Amino acid sequence: MDLAEMRETYGLGELLESQVAADPLVQFQLWLDQARSAGLAEPNAMVLATADADGRPSARTVLLKRLDERGFVFYTNQQSRKADELAANPYCALVFPWHAMERQVRVEGTVTKLPADEVDEYFASRPRESKLGAWASQQSQPVESREELDLQYASYERQWPEGTEISTPYFWGGYLVAPTAFEFWQGRVGRLHDRLAYRRASSGSDWELSRLQP
């Protein structure tokens, strides 16, 4: 297959300044709701890009678990690579790739840890298997085999039998991404895509909207 010949013609919609909300969080919620209504698989999946203290980037897909007036929330092992990088460089970028709708949203922001009570509340809502998996995985660390990982999981199954309360791991937590910039992208014919960008105004409270060339 010739990769150079792989291309799609976009034309499902348009994105004009008159069509978007003044607040990018409101606009994001609208697009997220539309992605859910369209039946997209895991519309809350987002690519999280981080960088270490030397500026070397890495990226992976995580799940958005809450959106409110503060920003975007996700949870992870705080001994993982992403957590180490956020500790050294508390800035990140998010990408929501809603290909089926010919849409993409990019977010840039600053990252802070969530307080323990919020983390505990969310962890308590997780399925039992996910809770056990959080305990069993030393995320980002090498493991000899799949069998060793399964044995680690089985040991926690024995520690917390069905019906018992599983506590939040001491090494597990949540992060809040407070957005400083957004870009909403809608595919258009001829690759003349619509790109509308929001950035904080000099006042620090309002958002300024601009159009970017594709």
Automatic annotation (TrEMBL):
What are the record keywords, sorted? Flavoprotein, FMN, Oxidoreductase, Pyridoxine biosynthesis
List GO molecular-function terms, semicolon-separated: FMN binding; pyridoxamine phosphate oxidase activity
EC number(s) from the headed UniProt entry: 1.4.3.5
SUPFAM superfamilies this protein is in? FMN-binding split barrel (SSF50475)
Q: What residue ranges carry the coiled-coil annotation? A: none
Record domain Pyridoxamine 5'-phosphate oxidase N-terminal: where: 34-153
Give the co-factor note. Binds 1 FMN per subunit.
Needed cofactors: FMN
Annotated catalysed reactions? pyridoxamine 5'-phosphate + O2 + H2O = pyridoxal 5'-phosphate + H2O2 + NH4(+); pyridoxine 5'-phosphate + O2 = pyridoxal 5'-phosphate + H2O2
Could you state one GO biological process linked to this protein?
A: pyridoxine biosynthetic process
Task: Summarize where substrate binds, as residue positions.
Answer: 7-10, 65, 122, 126, 130, 191-193
Tell me one Pfam family matched here. PNP_phzG_C
Pathway field: Cofactor metabolism; pyridoxal 5'-phosphate salvage; pyridoxal 5'-phosphate from pyridoxamine 5'-phosphate: step 1/1; Cofactor metabolism; pyridoxal 5'-phosphate salvage; pyridoxal 5'-phosphate from pyridoxine 5'-phosphate: step 1/1
- Key word Cell division present: no
Q: Which residues bind FMN?
A: 60-65, 75-76, 81-82, 104, 139-140, 185, 195
Question: If you read the UniProt record, what top EC class would you report for this enzyme, in one word?
Answer: oxidoreductase
Q: Which residues cross the membrane?
A: none
Q: Where is the Pyridoxine 5'-phosphate oxidase dimerisation C-terminal domain?
A: 172-214
Classification via InterPro entries? Pyridox_Oxase, Pyridox_Oxase_CS, Pyridox_Oxase_N, Pyridoxamine_oxidase_dimer_C, Split_barrel_FMN-bd
What's this protein's family per the entry?
Belongs to the pyridoxamine 5'-phosphate oxidase family.
Q: How does it assemble?
A: Homodimer.
- What task does this protein carry out? Catalyzes the oxidation of either pyridoxine 5'-phosphate (PNP) or pyridoxamine 5'-phosphate (PMP) into pyridoxal 5'-phosphate (PLP).
Protein name in UniProt? Pyridoxine/pyridoxamine 5'-phosphate oxidase
